[in-house]
Amino acid sequence: MPIRMLTLEDLDLDGKRVFMRVDINTPIHPETGQLMEQERLKEAAMTIQDLPKSRVIVASHQGRVGRSDYTSLEAHSRALGEILGRKVGFVPDVFGPAALSEMDSLGDGEVLMLDNLRFTAEENQEYKPADAEKTFLVKRLKEHVDACVLDAFSTAHRSSPTIVGFAGLVPTCAGRTVGRELRMLDRIASVEKGPYVTVLGGAKVNDRLEAIDALIANNRADKVLLCGLVGLVFLKAAGKLRGDVGIEGEQKYVLKARQLMDEDPDRFALPTDVAVRGDGGRKEVDASALTAQAQVLDIGSKTIDRYSRYIKGAGTVFMSGPPGAFEWDEFSRGTEGLLRAMASSLGTTIISGGHLSTALHKYGIREEIDHISTAGGALVQFLAGKRLPLIDALERAADKWGKKAE
Ligand code: 3PG
Prior knowledge:
The protein is of the alpha/beta class.
């Protein structure tokens, strides 16, 4: 069913102060504090480029309270400026006097980035739209903006004030990222078919377990191929890993994995071999021979072959999170192998998350994948058929501020 939403072409945004809610939440190197990728920044830049005469106020969250990636957006503003090839101002404030005065003094064609929206208490909460409109965050900002562009597809599953609070108050439309994602997903929905194979890797165990629940509930995961940290959690739950994985909340995750495997053991495939760091670099060992001290950095060759066969036999393949630490060449074999299997698959292929998008770039096979999304949790929710608060907001805005149906 097509989504009703306004686009940049439907609103007159020249000379207007445009509050542009993007998602440039980026992995941050825990030691150097540097941004580890730029995919989401590049997407945000595409929308800004299409607003050459507007006064653009870029707003995003970064990380979660208490985590090491919960930082200021100053480095993001510099990186965005480099991508755009023009100045992006930065104000270390969100809705205080400094931010509001900078917003008011913006000239046509200028871009300003506010600081991390999650530095404000309200942005860390989820609200119904009518309540979001009453937050101090939205009430204050809206007096200083003329329109809103929602472009944070990867935060579409969060009903935080800046996602759902503006649509009823100022003319609001979708940015290019949201438009591209929805167009591609709509196209995919018309051709995709089973069997559905899901490959889950990376370090975000909680997110991957939530993804499994949502995808199974919507019949979107006939086979789940596990790798990365979540693979280790399942190995431990299956009694094949001695020692601990070494992550916070491990016990809870292991119990959840156990429950999932008990309910339907055939649905899940676990690594049979993995790669660790040995004396001469990469060393492959049987998963059952792992010791607690070994740091697993990739899946092994037998697992790559077995998973590749599942991928090639799939009607639709969805992959979220890399199988290994592909930044190091000796541990990129799993990520490259499975991505190449996807690239040569005749089924519909969908890649989720900035890390995998960067990896596809590295291997030069982006063109072979049907849809590459920088979204993680939001994409899973969408594929699982859930209603997303950001899309609801765009539909409300289309009803209130325009008529065009996409
Ligand atoms: C993401 O990276 O999935 C989005 O930026 C949402 O972040 P969150 O899971 O911390 O809300």
